């Protein structure tokens, strides 16, 4: 169950990641004619921890709650209601170019909306709404693979509210969920890009890391699966092999987090790190892949059980680690375990089957895309572990 109202210790600006309070936000009344004026919280607003109301004489919004706000620290616009959630969660997706981060996040958000779980997912701002609508249309209706995140630009956070509809109360518990998605090219060269400073803040401030890994970059996989499946599933032309990329990215990512969090070089990072193997659908016919009875190929039980099924997740973790070991990826696994204290490995398919030769999708049936998020929610005691 959610904790007490107004958890001031957890509230961060989603852009600059500095602590937020009523005093660190500028609230504005917007009249719709491109004019706006600042509205200061009253003593009653501060005491009751509520949004301020416009009291300006002759303003057509007089008596209405403010509709706009910005962070005093960085000047970025933020949803006024962001302060008033019961819990605050965030995760940052990182991975090499073409690993399928955009596809995965698109289907994750869509499946979260229609999972059958007792949650209502609502976008907090227009940017998040438009991004989700565009992604869902391209994938689920137009049947196109999403375009990759543009490199060299600081990613804009997705801002969501999760309402817990299972509570039998008039006031539903809420969770603010922030998603950061950096371009693969930037994630591969952390410390050397124009967007580096902002990405560094996201990495330091996020509660969980999604480290997205494309198994089709492994030499053993590329030599075994059918060329047409490989070509259809690859979002970008990559000639380099995955081991050096993933080991290097993992180590640079960990070092960057340590620098931003003032951790000693040998200190394991305590952030939850979900290692997500994408495009599992392309591996089904591999002779040295996953057996037909493997847990990873079965339907995820977490949503059906309305909780995080520990035994299933542990089995999937073991199966993927065994697969990577057979592919000669012990250096990648060692880098993950050496840098992160809380690690779990997952396997997902954003589409359910590979695109055709024209990069067109069949009817989309995502597989296990909610599993990493369910792990994070369980670790925060928002859902039970069963």
The total strand number stands at 10
At the fold tier of CATH, the topology name of the largest domain is Rossmann fold
The low-pLDDT segments are 1-7
Helix content: 25-40%
Q: Tell me, briefly, the overall form.
A: globular
Sheet with most strands: 7 strands, mixed
What number of structural domains do the residues give?
Answer: 2
Identify the quaternary structure here: single chain
Level-2 CATH architecture of the largest domain: 3-Layer(aba) Sandwich
Strand content: 15-25%
Query: How far is it from the N-terminal to the C-terminal residue, by CA?
Result: 15 Å
Number of helices: 12
Overall pLDDT level:
83
Strands of the widest sheet, in order across it, are 5-6-7-4-8-9-10
Q: What is the CATH level 1 assignment of the largest domain?
A: Alpha Beta
Quick rundown:
The protein has 386 residues and is of the alpha/beta class. It is built from twelve helices and ten strands. Strand 1 and strand 2 form a beta hairpin.
